[in-house]
Specification:
alpha/beta; Aspartate Aminotransferase, domain 2; Aspartate Aminotransferase, domain 1; 2 domains; seven-stranded mixed β-sheet; three-stranded antiparallel β-sheet; 10 helices; 16 strands; globular; disordered N terminus; binds pyridoxal-5'-phosphate
Length: 396
């Protein structure tokens, strides 16, 4: 890693970091830490003094051996991952897990349960259909995916092969959180209460490593890298050994998780650049540890503060309407609307002119979406909150 991040200079009118970059609120590919980008610049030309850039090394040579080994071990360090879980770097995006999960984990006859709390969770169910019986155990469709169902709203089938859910709904801006006895959101990891022995499968694409995570609660987790882990081109899988052994049907070699587990994710040429970038991001995550506090605790606290600036601006006026119900709000993607679509357009345009980009909402929801992944500096969130207050004052 090279230098520490330089302090952003927000004024006079365009919010920018010292290196001239503006604040990128894109939902994915999302912003990356500047230190990581600087390291990539060097390594593309010449990695580790080898005289050859990372893109040009053999995926079986010693330079990539080291990159891959460190990526695996750093990922394990971040989450204290036990030895009976394997990490895989796959291609095909998180969307390919929609078919790989059922193909590898369930037979045609045995049902799998799905909780559909947003666009990607619905797609996961839809794409799994060719693999036979499925059960929709819970959904938030009735209120346009503005909330996460309570345990009592979820009804599991008899003996599902697994339960699939999505921990953070990138498009609607909702996230699973533990709610305490007084009904307060603790911002901690919450999972569906799976019947004993049934593995949980979680799409963690847009909130992995944004908060402390206990992978031992899951049978399989997947996450497209392009939000909190790195760049587009690889999807990270965390899978428990017993699920690797399931063989519910014959599958092409390259569609089996086991193929990748047996060969360190390189049965063929893997996405070397995307894996290398994940490795740098894992080191950046580890480097966030502070004053004896675990790196994920530090990131989590920072993410709560970051989102807090913007939610406070949202709640300070009736001008904006947030999509998510308060206890289901996401720390990563914040969705809201102005009173009219014309004002939404003006908001995005004027925010863009002030150095805040990527705020246009998903085509299926409209409005705005501010994505505040780990690499978004707190100053970016403060700048957006200030802008929101001023925009509401001028246009309200
Ligand atoms: C939660 C979630 N799941 C799945 C996907 C699809 O990812 P990919 O484009 O890598 O297939 C996305 C993309 O934004 C997402 O946010």
């Amino acid at each position: 890693m090279t230098t520490a991040p330089s302090a952003p200079s927000i004024k006079p009118s365009v919010a920018k970091t010292a290196s001239g970059r503006i604040f990128n609120f894109s939902a994915g590919p999302g912003c990356l830490p500047e230190e990581v980008l600087q390291q990539i610049q060097q390594d593309v030309l010449n990695i580790a003094g080898s005289g050859i850039g990372i893109l040009e090394h053999s995926h079986r040579g010693k330079n990539f051996d080291k990159v891959l080994a460190e990526a695996f071990s750093d990922f394990r360090k971040i989450s204290n991952l036990p030895a009976n879980y394997q990490i895989l770097f796959l291609t095909g995006g998180a969307t390919s897990q929609n078919f790989m999960v059922p193909a590898n984990l369930k037979s045609q006859d045995q049902a799998a349960d799905y909780i559909t709390t947003g666009y990607w969770a619905e797609k996961a169910l839809e794409h799994a259909k060719i693999y036979g019986a499925l059960h929709e155990a819970g959904t938030s469709k009735d209120k346009n995916h503005s909330y996460i169902p309570t345990d009592s709203q979820i009804k599991y089938s008899g003996n599902p092969a697994y339960i699939h859910f999505c921990s953070n709904n990138t498009i609607y801006g909702t996230e699973w959180h533990e709610i305490d006895a007084s009904g307060k959101n603790t911002w901690q990891q919450r999972d569906p209460k799976a019947p004993a022995g049934v593995p949980l499968v979680c799409d963690m694409s847009s909130d992995i490593y944004s908060r402390p995570v206990d992978f031992t609660k899951y049978g399989l987790v997947y996450a497209g890298a392009q939000k909190n882990l790195g760049a587009a081109g690889t999807t990270v899988i965390v899978i428990r050994d017993d699920l690797l052994k399931r063989k519910p049907r014959e599958l092409p070699w390259m569609l089996q998780y086991d193929t990748f587990a047996k060969d360190e994710s390189r049965p063929n040429t893997p996405p070397v650049f995307a894996i290398y970038i994940c490795g740098l991001v894992f080191k950046w995550i580890l480097a966030q540890a502070q004053d004896g506090r675990h790196c994920l605790d530090v990131l989590h606290e920072r993410n709560i503060r970051k989102a807090g600036h913007i939610y406070a601006a949202l709640d300070s006026t009736a001008f904006y309407k947030g999509h998510a119900e308060k206890n289901s709000r996401s720390l990563m993607n914040l969705t809201f609307k102005c009173p009219t679509p014309e004002l939404d357009d003006r908001f995005c345009k004027e925010a863009g002119a002030e150095g805040m980009d990527g705020l246009k909402g998903h085509r299926s929801t409209g409005g705005m979406r501010a994505s505040m992944y780990n690499a978004m500096p707190e100053d970016g969130c403060k700048a957006l909150a200030d802008f929101m207050r001023e925009f509401a004052r001028k246009n309200g």
